[in-house]
């Protein structure tokens, strides 16, 4: 195990005579034994960052430090990292045992010690019955277990997981997610997982680094990024269903009450107390509320809006209700036993302490 420190990391490519800044001044620290997720959309720079840590990509500028040693100029084999690829990358002619033992033999480890280490890791990952089988005979989930076993058998200081669950079906992904969490609890290796699946990141990671267009947007615990998103991008990326986001304009009624009006719509509701002294009349803002923080109420209360149901979905354990506002849908989730037809009137209450407000120009949290 080791602490991983990334300082002002940059990666620039040249593609068709055009310079592409894939990773921009990235700074973060993964503590010894911590599980970190690099989360973001495709092409945001998360896999490039992982490959620079592994030594498979050259660093344009900045530093990567593992266990107190700057590894920028070290060969990948000297960095003491384990890497599990997205596509398994197992050797087809070799058995599972030989695939796992390959790196240990390359280090000239005695054969009895190799067997002891392979047996130990096989038991940990529950693949002992597979040791004499070839990769072609394994399922996707079994191949991924072998892939991860091969990465951790050499006891790396940092374990790197490059979208290891992306090729698995939904049920197997859930199962492997649980196994990864159990595995990390047992080996306590400093681990980095790259994923575009926010549910995966929320379930596995101690902290999440959310990246967009090569820039670190927020770095915090799952609850921090969910409850206190730093900007509109993070707010919209984290959460399933995603946060409702729409543009509102502030104004003051004749009674002196501060109100928001949804742009292009007659829908109005009161400005939450926390924002009354911070919003300016006539100025647009981006308003956010998560689907689970909207409640169905009988009467008119502060922060409510009266509207009509557009779509009703009963998913068994929860119901999802969608209301069309201009070209977008406002969604809410409830565990209550309710039923609506399209066009039915509905009165909704926004939980005031769960309302988020962002600057309409730079997207930063207000």
Fold topology:
Layout: E1 4-15, E2 18-30, E3 35-39, H1 46-54, E4 61-66, E5 69-70, E6 81-84, H2 96-106, H3 111-124, H4 140-152, E7 158-162, H5 170-187, E8 190-195, H6 198-204, E9 207-212, E10 215-220, H7 222-227, H8 232-237, E11 244-252, E12 258-262, E13 268-270, E14 284-289, E15 294-297, E16 304-308, E17 311-314, E18 319-325, E19 328-334, E20 345-350, E21 356-359
Parallel strand pairs: 3-8, 3-9, 6-7, 7-8
Antiparallel strand pairs: 1-2, 1-4, 4-5, 9-10, 11-12, 11-14, 12-13, 14-21, 15-20, 16-20, 17-18, 18-19
Given helix and strand content, the structural type is alpha+beta
The first-level CATH class of the largest domain is given as Alpha Beta
Strand content: 25-35%
Question: What number is the mean pLDDT?
Answer: 91
CATH superfamily of the largest domain: P-loop containing nucleotide triphosphate hydrolases
How are the strands ordered across the major sheet? Answer: 6-7-8-3-9-10
Helix content: 10-25%
Q: Tell me the number of helical segments per DSSP (H or I, 4 or more residues long).
A: 8
What is the count of structural domains?
2
Q: What's the N-to-C terminus distance?
A: 39 Å
* CATH topology-level fold name of the largest domain: Rossmann fold
Architecture of the largest domain, according to CATH?
3-Layer(aba) Sandwich
**Beta strand count:** 21
């Amino acid at each position: 195990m080791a602490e991983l420190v990334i300082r002002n990391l940059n990666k620039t490519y040249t593609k068709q005579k055009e310079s592409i800044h894939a990773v921009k001044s990235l700074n973060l620290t993964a503590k010894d034994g911590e599980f970190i997720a690099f989360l973001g959309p495709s092409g945001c720079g998360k896999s490039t960052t992982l490959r620079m840590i592994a030594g498979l990509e050259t660093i344009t500028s900045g530093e990567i430090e593992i266990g107190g040693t700057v590894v920028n100029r070290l060969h990948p084999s000297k960095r003491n990292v384990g890497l599990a690829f997205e596509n398994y990358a197992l050797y087809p002619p070799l058995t599972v045992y030989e695939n796992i033992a390959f790196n240990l033999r390359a280090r000239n480890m005695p054969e009895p010690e190799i067997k002891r280490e392979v047996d130990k890791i096989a038991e940990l990952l529950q693949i002992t019955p597979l040791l004499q089988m070839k990769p072609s005979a394994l399922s996707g989930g079994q191949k991924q277990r072998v892939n991860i076993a091969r990465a951790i058998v050499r006891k790396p200081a940092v374990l790197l997981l490059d979208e290891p669950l992306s090729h698995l079906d939904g049920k197997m992904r859930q199962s492997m997610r649980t196994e990864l969490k159990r595995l990390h609890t047992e080996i306590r290796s400093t681990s980095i997982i790259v994923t575009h699946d926010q549910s995966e990141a929320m379930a596995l990671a101690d902290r999440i680094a959310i990246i967009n267009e090569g820039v670190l947007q927020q770095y915090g615990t799952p609850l921090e990024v969910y409850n206190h998103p730093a900007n509109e991008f993070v707010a919209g990326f984290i959460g399933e269903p995603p946060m409702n986001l729409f543009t509102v304009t502030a104004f003051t009624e004749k009674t002196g009450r501060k109100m928001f009006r949804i742009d292009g719509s007659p829908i109005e509701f009161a400005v939450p107390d926390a924002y009354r002294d911070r919003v300016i009349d006539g100025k647009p803002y981006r308003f956010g509320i998560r689907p689970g923080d909207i409640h169905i109420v009988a009467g008119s209360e502060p922060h409510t809006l009266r509207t009509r149901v557009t779509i009703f979905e009963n998913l068994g354990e929860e119901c999802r209700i969608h209301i069309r506002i201009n070209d977008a849908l406002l969604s809410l989730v409830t565990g209550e036993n309710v039923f609506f037809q399209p066009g039915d009137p509905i009165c909704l209450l926004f939980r005031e302490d769960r309302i988020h407000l962002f600057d309409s120009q730079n997207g930063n949290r207000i």
